[in-house]
Structures are given as C-alpha cells and as structure tokens.
Amino acid sequence: MKKIGILAVQGDFAEHIQSLNKLKVEIEEVRLPEHLNDLDGLIIPGGESTSQSRLMDIYGLNTPVIENVRNGMPVWGTCAGMILLAGKLVEPHPVPLGLMDTEIQRNAYGRQVDSFEADVSVPCLSGGNFRAIFIRAPKVVSVGSGVEALSWSSDGDIFAVRQGHMLATSFHPELTNDLRFHEYFVDMVNSS
Which of 79, 148, 165, 182 is catalytic? Predict the structure, then answer.
C-alpha cells in the first residue's frame, strides 16, 4: 500500500488526515526530514503560508521536500500549499519552494471576513460541481505552458492546477465531506 505524508507543522493537516482515513490510505505526519522517508506522496495543507514556510525552514524540510518532488514524488498543495509550491509570488514573502511553473498572489480575494463558498466546475472530477471553500485564498496570476488548469471561474480565475505529478488548489477540499479531490490525488500517487 502506498503511503502519503501530510506536512503537519501548521494549518489544517488534521482535516486532510480525516479525509485520507476515510479512503483507507496509509498516512505519515511530516514534521522532520526523516518523516519524508518511504513516502509515495505529500500534501501541503492550507494554513498560514508565512508560518508554514518559516517552520519548514526551522525543521530543515525545504530542501528534502524540493528534492523529493523534483525526483517525482507527487505533491498536492491546498491554499497555503499552493502558495508554497509556486515558482513565483506577487508578494516578496514567503519565499516559495519554486516547484510549479505558476505565479501566485496571496490573499487575492480579501481577508478572513471575505471568505466564501462557491460551486466550481472541475471537469476532471465526475459527479458535478465541487463545493469549494475559499479562505484568504490565493489567486493564480499566470501559469507556464506545462501547467494544466483543472478548475476556473467564468471570469477566468484559475482555482486548481496540475503540472505532471504536482497538484494545487486555491480552496480547501479537506474542509468538505466531498472526497473527490483526495481520491484524485490518491490516484496520482498510485499511478506514479
């Protein structure tokens, strides 16, 4: 059975654990570099991207995460995770991991009080629209030629992207009871 790690230094990692438990997936909470050993995939959860970035640096996780993903380990970033996976940010901080060919704007839809839910179309998922929860959500400003948009608004805002073995969503699937995005990522891991 494949094992998926969840970055557990800050943010809503517990919610991802609950979702993966429902899918009967073997899980490892990642807090130190050695927790990345023998993983088949990694989730970087939503939370506060600056705090996550600082804690990853303190615990020595940046370089091992980058190396594992560059060596083909599937990774999924939700909200703050999307920010950390980015190649470039509009803002100067935090410094992203530089893994995806994306430019991201933090808190693009406003502050905490501006959080919202919306039904979004995700053509790669069967079963109709996905009820997405946006909390201080990032916005995809631009993508490189190797990045596929998986979900977008009628205004052209991109909500989910995939670049090979890397997946990122600006919203929080882990805060819903809809497991389709978790199933999608598990399929990515199983086919890697």
Answer: 79
